[in-house]
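hey so i finally got around to running the thing on that chain from the lab meeting. sorry it took forever, my laptop kept dying and i had to restart like 3 times. anyway pasting the input first so we r on the same page abt which one it is
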Amino acid sequence: MDINILREYIPLYKEALLLTMKIGWQGIFMSLIIGLVGSAILHFKVPVLKTIIGIYIEIFRNTPLLVQLFFIYFALPKVGIKITAETCGVLGLGLLGGAYMIETFRSGLEAIPVIQKESALSLGMNEYQTLWLVIMPQAISISVPGLLANVIFLLKETSVFSTISLMDLMFTAKDLIGMYAKTIECLFLLVVFYLIMLLPVSIIGAIVERRLRYGQFGD
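ok and heres what got predicted. didnt touch it at all, straight out
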């Protein structure tokens, strides 16, 4: 392995890492918003909307992100909706992640004993206050392991962004291999930079999960 090649390529990978993380975290933030709103709709069994949410979940959980990105990036312009590759990445990741986040939040909501809802209502809270002030905070705490797994899954899914010409980590690696044929160096840097992106999330997630478990059940 040529060390000089590694030094030469590191700035390119740094730039690609920043773009990958920017799109990835924007998509994850969008998925969390969708997850909270969608799980609330399912919790209240809102007519019509709960059916739409159910269809949305089935579509996005049962099709690959690559197909979803192709549809957003190549098919939508045919009907007059043009978006940039970066926006397409955020939208695709956010919609895919939203389907998983809804189910994760929903499982957390269902784990809360009914008596807590009844107690909050008996104290004079309405349905929405009960959900957002009493039930949802506990549901989020219970959902943390699932949420962290979703976040890591979504960050790894960013590897397909290169298919819509986003200069992410995968695109940079493939581009450099194609131009200079330094396959070992390029793939080594690809692995290193993905670890730089994912390992801190995994470690912080494990610490948060352990502390929440201690808070709920003790050591």
